[in-house]
Amino acid sequence: MSEEAITYEVDDGVAWVTINRPDARNALNAAAREGLFAATHRFNADDSAKVMVLTGAGDRAFCAGGDLKEMSETALTVPPPDFAPQFGRNIDVIKPTIAAVNGVAFAGGFLLAQQCDLVVAAEHATFAVSEVKVGRGSPWAAPLSWLLPPRLALQILLTGDPISAERAREVGMVNEVVPAAELRARTQELAVRIASNAPLSVLAAKRTAYLSAEYPLARAYELAEDIWEPVYLSADAQEGPTAFREKRTPVWKGR
């Protein structure tokens, strides 16, 4: 992994993955893209990490998108499907992910926030799919009209204009908006709450939430039953009620 472009640290079961190019507004050059793939693979294999938080260094930018200077130098035309990590599309991440948006999230930065399961944003953060302003494309924005009302998704895509963190929260793209100084602590608190839950239930809950984006409701119900059956049959499913009866904290085994 490119340590200069991406950092990885685990804090109380939470893996913090940071794009570390603050002078370039954390733009995604080749080193950052490769580092993000590597960090995601590391998280997937890291049993000590239950939740990933993706953020950017500094307080100006989460990620300003692709590195336009590099794109110009390489005369990039159509980016390949694995140009940058897209959770759930070109790299599977079964554990929960949270974007801690500490500034602008434009273009590829919007992509990264969009693909995370939850988003916590600093009050000064802004979001934009700015490709129409520079003649580029955003095929990765296909899920946007599932995440947002279609007319708002169209406005974001057609104008390229940014929306504020508070507006993003109002329409359901952002879970929480917090003062910048509290972003790390509040995101960590949310991630630890998730990490403390029964791990098999957490993984199943994430899979269930995305079913209706891909399947008709009747089929989604059927698949959800299949997803949850092994959870019901697990030792943890007995541990939860037992711990409640014994008035103690559950000890999850993940099996």
From TrEMBL:
Catalytic activity: a 4-saturated-(3S)-3-hydroxyacyl-CoA = a (3E)-enoyl-CoA + H2O; a (3S)-3-hydroxyacyl-CoA = a (2E)-enoyl-CoA + H2O
InterPro entries according to UniProt: ClpP/crotonase-like_dom_sf, Enoyl-CoA_hydra/iso, Enoyl-CoA_hydra_C
Top-rank taxon, per record: Bacteria
GO MF annotation: an example: enoyl-CoA hydratase activity
Pfam families listed in its UniProt record: ECH_1 (PF00378)
Keyword annotations from UniProtKB, A to Z: Lyase
Keyword Nucleotidyltransferase: no
CDD domains per UniProt: crotonase-like
One BP term from GO: fatty acid beta-oxidation
PANTHER family: ENOYL-COA HYDRATASE, MITOCHONDRIAL (PTHR11941:SF54), ENOYL-COA HYDRATASE-RELATED (PTHR11941)
Family in the record: Belongs to the enoyl-CoA hydratase/isomerase family.
Protein name: Enoyl-CoA hydratase/isomerase family protein
Organism annotation: Pseudonocardia petroleophila
Species classification: Bacteria, Bacillati, Actinomycetota, Actinomycetes, Pseudonocardiales
